[in-house]
Amino acid sequence: MRHLMSPLDFSVEELEKLMNLANDIEQNPKKYAHACDGKILATLFYEPSTRTRLSFESAMIRLGGKCLGFASADNSSAAKGESVSDTIRIVSCYADICAMRHPKEGAPLVASMFSTIPVINAGDGGHQHPTQTLTDLLTIRSLKGRLDHLTIGLCGDLKFGRTVHSLISALVRYDNIRFILISPDELRVPDYIRNDVLKANHVDFKEVTKLEDALPNLDLLYMTRVQKERFFNEEDYVRMKDFYILDKAKMDLADPDMLVLHPLPRVNEISVEVDKDPRAAYFKQAQYGVYARMALILTLLGIEVE
């Protein structure tokens, strides 16, 4: 039995196989429509989610399986004080695979230690979001044709953004990747990402404050929102939330082939006028998320479709 806690749980070769499967699912959906007949996915979401929870449920339903679970800790026995370890022991009796989102770093890892079914980390605090990373890698490879020789701008909340932390950790394994980290001083990447991931892997990166300075040099811009739920101080959030707004004027500075990604939800960091730009790929990215999670479910359940 295998779990997914971090994007590094899969080797580069395994990721390639998983993405090939996702692309085949995209091209041949009917072939996979009954692959998970009789299987049940449990979605245990202790923290609000739209895309991640619904895309997991969509993925399982499209594979012919069924779903159960909860969308808030208030709607579960966690509100009565039940531990994560006890919850997963019970859920293991009801389902064949589980996706868990939790505000505390490491909670899905704890669950995996007590589970008798595969557990997928669907986001734990500001730590990791591996299935978003699978989605991001699949989107980049499908639209750019490669995962190497890229200059990638990461913009916004790089301190608390678990999608950013996971994506950096995954991409440093590919050749000639360069990062431009765009954030205010207060929201720069944590030291463990800077030192243990970027510097330790001898990856070229620089940290800047102005988005305009970075745009002309990018193959890919990954925007993130400033996450209100991660701030302890309301004043700090209000001061930071509008620090970066990508609009048409800024897009005019970028390369004609640059892609814009965003894990969503957005607040106002990408103007709606950008949605019409052919370089805006964040809604395609959400669609790729379903294919990535379908491929992941099949892989962790050990189901092969001829």
From TrEMBL:
Residues 2-141 form the Aspartate/ornithine carbamoyltransferase carbamoyl-P binding domain. Heterododecamer (2C3:3R2) of six catalytic PyrB chains organized as two trimers (C3), and six regulatory PyrI chains organized as three dimers (R2). Its EC number is 2.1.3.2. InterPro entries: Asp/Orn_carbamoyltranf_P-bd, Asp/Orn_carbamoylTrfase, Asp/Orn_carbamoylTrfase_sf, Asp_carbamoyltransf, Asp_carbamoyltransf_Asp/Orn-bd. The keyword Transmembrane does not apply. This is Aspartate carbamoyltransferase. Pfam families: OTCace, OTCace_N. The keyword GTP-binding does not apply. It comes from Candidatus Fusicatenibacter merdavium. L-aspartate binds at residues 80, 162, 225. It catalyses: carbamoyl phosphate + L-aspartate = N-carbamoyl-L-aspartate + phosphate + H(+). The gene is pyrB.
